[in-house]
Amino acid sequence: MNDPKPALPHPLPGAIGLSHLSAYDWEAADGVCGGSPHLHLVCTEAYVVTGGRGAVQTLSPDGYRDIPLEAGSIAWFTPGTVHRMVQGGDLRITVLMQNSGLPEAGDAVFTFPPEVLADPERYAAAATLPPGTGPETAAAAQRRRDLAVEGYLTLREALVAGDNGPYLDFQRAAARIVRDKVPTWRALWRAGALATAERTGAQLDALADGEPAYLGEATAYEAAPTRLGGFGMCGRRDEYNLPGTTLPYQGE
C-alpha cells in the first residue's frame, strides 16, 4: 500500500489556494471600477461572494459575458477565460484557486496590449509591483490595472463584433510568456494537487483492505491571514501563508 501521507504538510482540501478579496474601487477608462483583467493557463478559479455586489466580466470562446455577483453567489471560470472583477458596491469575495501554488508561481497573464506581451522584459516590468502595501504600491497596482484594461477593451470589442482573432492571439501570447515556468509548475502540482489525489487513492485502498491505520493520524489545523490588504490582481487581498499550500504572490 502506498504511503497515504501528503507530500506537502497539511494542505487545504483538494490542495486548493484560498484568499479574500475586496474589489478595487478605482475607475477605469471605460468608467467601470474594478480589477485587472487576466487569465490563468492551467487553473480553474472560483469566486464565493461574501458581501456586497458587482460582477465578473469574462471573455471566452462562447463570447463576452457579464455575470452578476451578490452575497451567496458563486462564479467560476476555467483556464483560458479572461476575467475582470467589477465593483458594484462593497464587493467582497473569497477566492478558491485550483492547484494551489501555481497561481502564486506565475499562472496568470494580464491582458496588456500586444506590444507589451511581445517583450518579456517590458511585460515583467509592467506586471511586477513594489513590495509593501503603501501609496507607491497602490499607484503601481492602479497603473498595472489600467494597462490591462487597455488591452482587455480591445479584445472585448473584437469578440463582441464576432472577431475572436485578437482573443486567440492573446491566449497564444500568454502561453509563450509562461512556457519556461512549466517545469516549476509541474513540480508544484506533483507535490500538491496530485499528491493529495494520490493520498485519497491510498486511503481507499486501505479501507478496501480493512486496514484504516491512517485514521490514527487524524488531527485539526488552524490558520489566520498572514498579510492583510495586499494588492492583488482584482483587489485588495488577504492571504494565508500556509507552507507548501498557499504562498504570497510573487511581485505583489
From TrEMBL:
One of its GO terms (molecular function) is isomerase activity. Keywords: Isomerase. This is Mannose-6-phosphate isomerase-like protein (Cupin superfamily). It comes from Streptomyces caelestis. Gene3D superfamilies: Jelly Rolls. InterPro entries: RmlC-like_jellyroll (IPR014710), RmlC_Cupin_sf (IPR011051).
